[in-house]
Design a protein that fits this description.
mainly beta; 5 strands; five-stranded antiparallel β-sheet; single chain; 77 residues
C-alpha cells in the first residue's frame, strides 16, 4: 500500500471514497495500523469530513495531504 508517510494529525487532506465520487476535504484526527492480518501492514486514517460534518475512516492510500499542520506523526511508520 503506497501512501504519504509524512501525513499527521491535523493535516488538511483530500480523501477519495470511491472512483466515481468526487474527493472530499477533511482534517486528520488519527492514524493507526490495521492489525487484522499480522503479515500485512495497512493503515487507517480517521478524519473529520467537511462535506458530511462527521468523523469518517478511510484507508491511508486513499488520502492525499493538501496542507500540512504541526500535528503528531504516526508512531508505527
Amino acid at each position: 500500500m503506497k501512501f504519504d508517510r509524512n501525513m499527521k494529525k491535523g493535516d488538511l487532506v483530500r480523501v477519495r471514497k470511491s472512483l466515481v465520487e468526487a474527493p472530499e476535504l477533511g482534517i486528520i484526527l488519527k492514524i493507526w495500523l490495521d492489525t487484522t492480518y499480522e503479515d500485512i501492514k495497512r493503515y487507517h486514517v480517521k478524519y473529520f469530513s467537511f462535506s458530511s460534518g462527521r468523523n469518517e475512516t478511510q484507508w491511508a492510500n486513499h488520502v492525499e495531504v493538501v496542507s500540512s499542520g504541526e500535528g503528531e506523526p504516526c508512531e508505527e511508520w
